[in-house]
Write a structure and sequence with these properties.
GO terms for molecular function: cis-regulatory region sequence-specific DNA binding. This is JmjC domain-containing protein. InterPro entries: Cupin_8, JmjC_dom, JMJD6_ArgDemeth/LysHydrox. One of its GO terms (cellular component) is nucleus. The chain starts with 5 loop residues before the first helix and ends in an 11-residue tail after the last helix. It is 33% helix and 19% strand. The strands form three sheets. The protein has a nine-stranded mixed beta sheet with strand order 1-2-13-8-15-6-5-3-4. Strands 7-11-10 form a three-stranded antiparallel beta sheet. Strands 12-9-14 form a three-stranded antiparallel beta sheet, with no helix packed on it. By secondary structure, the chain is α+β, with helices and mostly antiparallel strands. The N terminus is likely disordered. Strand 1, helix 6 and strand 2 form a beta-alpha-beta unit. The protein contains twelve helices and 15 strands.
Length: 427
């Protein structure tokens, strides 16, 4: 038989047990004896290490497969609603679709139009972050049935606050007229000859109309309701404009989260993401004139008919443009300049909230007005919950500020000549 080659011997040496390596080593006799004694132990150790390595590989493979399967099922949620991640979310008591699905917002050039939007997703993806149009929330509002004849028949003699212009937007002037007089010409709007009813107290002074407005779940948390009535911002502003009427370009008072519910007609919008104030020529040192004073951030620019010669920086401003239809609710987050344009006769209701997502920004605006001294807040203020922080601010409002707020409201009502209680309305 031929002698084995060196390469064959080398492969056989690799197959031998660990004790073989020790036996072939050039140690002295005592080392050989010690190594021989350790051989069984080392063999067991090697086997344990091999088992641990195999077990880790198994665990890694299992986790990898679980992740792949979960991702696949998540991307096909409507076919596989009970994925691993949804089961885990269910065990934690949080619905999967509200807790873990990433925000499916569109690009920054448009505003999402959503239906079946859960409160959890609204808070996570939109509240105080991005504007959103909700398309299925107003259909059950009784106010969707308001008509010109209904309002004139029941409230025609009530005076309302409106503005009118003959020429550019910055020439608009304010008036107080009986509602029936405004309604008589509401169909006559022209590009530079239009009127716009913007009344913050009309619904306030006719509370039966408020009953026709729903309370969307997205707006139920409202810390403004913690303020004394004398200085609480009026909620539910009636907006009724002729064709071509429009608002100013502005940020809402107190930098609150604003809403706009279109009942009839439609609105065209231009919304400007935050960080562009320097391009909008914002007027300085303006006051809102509310019972609790605040700063006002208005631009002289008509974004729907800009004068680039007078405002050249405005060319660089980036706006999101879209149309809101009747039955849509628009929610505008804090910090967004916006302007609305009514291409045809349009009726809407605007409102606002201060909630756990925006309250710090709202309080900051209240402090800026100088009527409330934040230095009087308790030392543990930052450790309090959102609602408790607002309650702490309410406690330090001076009595003279509350009294001044009452006088402001009375003065406005006197200008509008509201008298007595509203008679029972006719359907």
């Amino acid at each position: 038989m031929m002698a084995k080659s060196s390469s064959t011997r080398h492969r056989e040496r690799k197959k031998s047990s660990p004790s073989t390596y020790f036996k072939e080593s050039k140690f002295d006799n005592s080392s050989k004896t010690l190594n021989a004694d350790l051989s069984p132990t080392l063999g067991k150790t090697s086997q344990n290490l091999r088992n641990q390595w195999l077990w880790r590989c198994f665990i890694f493979t299992l986790l990898l497969l679980t992740g792949i399967i979960s991702l696949y099922f998540d991307n096909n949620y409507k076919f596989f609603p009970h994925t691993w991640s949804s089961i885990m979310a269910g065990l934690s008591g949080t619905p999967k679709r509200d807790a873990e699905v990433p925000c499916s917002v569109m690009d920054n050039s448009t505003v999402d139009h959503r239906s079946n939007l859960t409160l959890a997703e609204f808070i996570r993806c939109y509240d105080a972050k991005r504007p959103v149009v909700i398309t299925d929330i107003l259909k059950n509002w009784k106010a969707m049935n308001w008509t010109k004849s209904f309002l004139v028949r029941n409230y025609g003699d009530k005076r309302v606050s409106m503005k009118a212009t003959e020429g550019p937007l910055n020439k608009a002037q304010g008036f107080a007229v009986p509602l029936k007089n405004f309604a008589e010409h509401v169909h006559e709007g022209q590009p530079e000859l239009w009127t716009y009813l913007e009344d913050e107290l009309f619904i306030e002074m006719n509370p039966e109309l408020r009953e026709d407005l729903g309370q969307p779940v997205y707006l139920r948390e409202d810390f403004f309701q913690l303020l004394p009535k004398e200085i609480r911002p009026w909620n539910a502003m009636l907006l009724w404009g002729t064709a071509h009427s429009r608002s100013s370009l502005h940020i809402d008072p107190y930098n609150w989260t604003g809403t706009n519910a279109v009942l009839r007609g439609k609105k065209m919008w231009k919304l400007f993401p935050p960080g562009q104030d320097h391009l909008l020529y914002v007027r300085k040192n303006q006051r809102c004139g509310f019972p609790l004073d605040c700063l006002k951030y208005n631009s002289p620019i008509d974004a729907f008919n800009p004068d680039y010669k007078q405002y050249p920086k405005f060319r660089r401003a980036q706006a999101i443009s879209f149309t809101q239809q009747a039955g849509d609710l628009l929610i505008i987050p804090t910090g967004w300049f916006h302007q609305a344009y009514n291409p045809l006769e349009t009726m809407a209701i605007s409102s606002q909230v201060m909630n756990s997502q925006n309250y710090k920004l709202v309080l900051e605006e209240i402090y800026k007005a100088g009527e409330i001294d934040a230095r009087k807040l308790p030392r543990n203020f930052e450790n309090l919950s959102a609602q408790k922080q607002v309650e702490a601010v309410v406690k330090i409002i001076p009595k003279d500020v509350i009294e001044k707020g009452r006088r402001v409201t009375e003065d406005i009502l006197d200008q509008l000549k509201w008298k007595g209680k509203t008679k029972q309305r006719n359907k």
